[in-house]
């Protein structure tokens, strides 16, 4: 499995490599380039070794010093794109939980593939469960309280997807059924809701049993939007994967995990067993 950071890292590496080659082609040493740019020589080495991500002003100064000012804007754009591929949650959520629920990619996507290793999938969340999970996120991330607005925005987004003509394929680990991220009544209500949606014509709902033989190990929760983008949820960041070869790895992993899952009556049986555990 390709590491989720690789798309962003490759973009930063491409910029650093091009700056280094530019310096070499101009027959400049690190010290000489630093002098021309007006900074300490250590900064040159930090940029080349990707210890420091260059700012636009740094890239323009570097290109000018090497006699290649015309290359600056393309390199700046590559750096900006890389920053959007790996976004820390503190930055992604700085506008609040409600704002984070709005994304044009949901309207533009026809086929969704969702794999969840823990939290019950957002597209199928009930209002009480969504409220509980968003409150949990708010407290963990120490965010302003816009939970009610976020709940309504999430439900509206989910309705547009589930009630529309989209195709939705969801895979989740059986263990996720036993991970209450809210109060037990809310969790149990969410499991009851799963029972009511299984069988919808535009929804494929699979559960991977705990003892199922698998060819792909459990990985981070991810959302695939058609075959053009995958969003991976790590503890510290939301990672956007846009490289086609990496997207194909995620889609291949999804297909292999789907073969290990159970559906229909068998999936419902697993959910009912988890429901019994909620009442024990």
Automatic annotation (TrEMBL):
InterPro entries listed in its UniProt record: DUF5753, Lambda_DNA-bd_dom_sf
Pfam families assigned: DUF5753, HTH_31
Domain DUF5753: 108-272
Designated name of the protein: Helix-turn-helix transcriptional regulator
Lineage, opening ranks: Bacteria, Bacillati, Actinomycetota, Actinomycetes, Kitasatosporales
């Amino acid at each position: 499995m390709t590491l989720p950071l690789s798309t962003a890292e490759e973009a930063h590496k491409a910029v650093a490599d091009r700056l280094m080659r530019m310096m070499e082609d101009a027959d400049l040493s690190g010290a000489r380039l630093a002098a021309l740019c007006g900074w300490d020589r250590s900064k040159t080495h930090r940029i080349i070794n990707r210890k420091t991500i260059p700012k636009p002003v740094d890239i323009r100064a570097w290109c000018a010093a090497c006699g290649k000012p015309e290359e600056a804007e393309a390199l700046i754009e590559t750096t900006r794109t890389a920053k959007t591929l790996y976004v820390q949650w503190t930055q992604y959520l700085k506008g609040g939980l409600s704002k984070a629920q709005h994304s044009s990619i949901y309207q533009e996507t026809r086929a969704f593939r969702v794999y969840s290793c823990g939290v019950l999938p957002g597209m199928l969340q009930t209002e009480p469960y969504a409220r509980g999970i968003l409150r949990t996120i708010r407290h963990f991330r120490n965010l302003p309280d816009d939970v009610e607005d976020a709940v309504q925005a999430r439900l509206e987004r989910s309705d547009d997807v589930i009630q529309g003509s989209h195709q939705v394929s969801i895979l989740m680990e059986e263990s996720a059924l036993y991970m209450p991220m809210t109060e037990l009544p809310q969790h149990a209500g969410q499991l009851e809701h799963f029972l009511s949606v299984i069988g919808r014509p535009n929804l494929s709902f699979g559960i991977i049993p705990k003892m199922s033989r698998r060819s792909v190990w459990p990985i981070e929760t991810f959302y695939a939007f058609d075959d053009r983008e995958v969003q991976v949820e790590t503890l510290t960041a939301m990672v956007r994967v846009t490289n086609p070869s990496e997207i194909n790895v995620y889609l291949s992993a999804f297909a292999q995990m789907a073969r290990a899952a159970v559906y229909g009556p068998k999936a419902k049986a697993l959910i009912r067993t988890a429901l019994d555990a909620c009442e024990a």
